[in-house]
Amino acid sequence: MTAPALVRARELIASARDAYAGNAVARAQLAECASRLDQPLRVALAGSLKAGKSTLLNALVGQDIAPTDATECTRVVTWYRSGSTPAVTAWYDGGESATIAVQRREGRLTFDLEGLTADRVDRLDVEWPASALAQTTIVDTPGTSSLSKDVSARTLELLTPENAASGADAVVYLLRSLSATDVQFLGRIGAHVGGESGPLGVVGVVSRADEVGAGRADAMMSAKDMAARFTAELELTGLCQAVVPVAGLLALAARTLRQSEFAAFAALASVLPEDLQLAMLSADRFAREDASLPVEAAMRRQLVERFGLFGIRLAVMLIRLGVQDSPSLAAELVARSGLDELRQVLDVQFGQRADQLKTHSALVALERVLEAHPTAQTPRLLDEAGRLLADVHGFQELRMLGRLRSTETSLSGDELTELQRLIGGFGIGAAQRLGLDPDIAVEEGRAVSLAAVHKWRARAAHPLVDQFTARACSVAARSAEGVLAELGETGIAIADQGSPGHRGPVAEPCRAR
What we know:
It contains 20 helices and ten strands. It is of the alpha/beta class.
């Protein structure tokens, strides 16, 4: 998103606030529209009950900050924001607030609501000193298939409110299966987060992926196969930009790996493989007091709770293959958990396009406010908002990326990949769009981008190309023109083009403790 587009969005919202000077309700709603442009990107975690949302949140942040037990606080929409010190505030009864104590019970973090029940609490605001929250606010939502309709309704009210814009700019939707309920809810999310254009920011996650293969060492392969099937099915609807398998429990444990746990894994690696396999037929058998293993029962129970049988098997295997220290083991486990792949997808889909997603949310919210409070100025303001949503090329790229997953084109497989790359499907930097080495000379980058302009213009104008393919080629040509214009700025390396400083909910490097 270019600076002028952001300026135009701010100016339009300011013009609307002037037009509604006498309407206090509308002005307050418009002030919220304006504030969304300056706030961090809002990414909501959604999915069915027990999908592993809180565990994934902890893994992304790299700290144990979200309660995972089935307590009252997990039935409430919870906002996680950056703060200098840990603090939790409950908003309840339509406007009252109270500071909530953060406690650890039996080693697990929990928020003590002190007598407040979930049905009274509107939301929890959690401020936490975590670098992953500096540019991204993460919203943890209750399960969409909760037995309590009121609990499920809270997620619906946040993401798909009636006559209002979605409370999130982008959504990570956790799937353990692909049910009709999931597809229906993804459709509702897309209609609100992406407006009528479809989903601008929805990524699917096959959660608790280690359980897909019953905790076997090859469980992630089974989860990848499942993610591929989900992706293929969701491509028919265009409801998800990607589906990634993640073992959230393993990812969190690996990011917080302790030296004592590494020592325990090393001891287990010294056990004969057939003996260890027999001892790990079940979690209960592995943690038995009388098990003939060189690790205390208390530590074995801790490993099961934090890593699961899949994580234990994987850690032991890696040590047997030559991993010699805890930082190396932590990095290997994180990579094999699927978290690194998810972080990359979130960076490309959300982080690098944060300004576009936030501006889209603000403009869609503006349209909803204008429609709810019609005046003589409303048609003019709606027309301007509609033009801005249609004119910003970044929006067109995001919409086209979504449609390319659900609509056939007459392009070959290589051409389709090239087009997706050019419109930002693999990153929005100039080198990423052109498929070039970041250190390549700017002159060569200009030549490649100019050739891309000519190629995709010609494809768009070909008389035998169908209408949708022609539209996709036109978008690609416009993207190539944008890269060419950027590379026309002298003194700027190709690696620096189109690379905003923002990065989304990307975790810090692993650290053994």
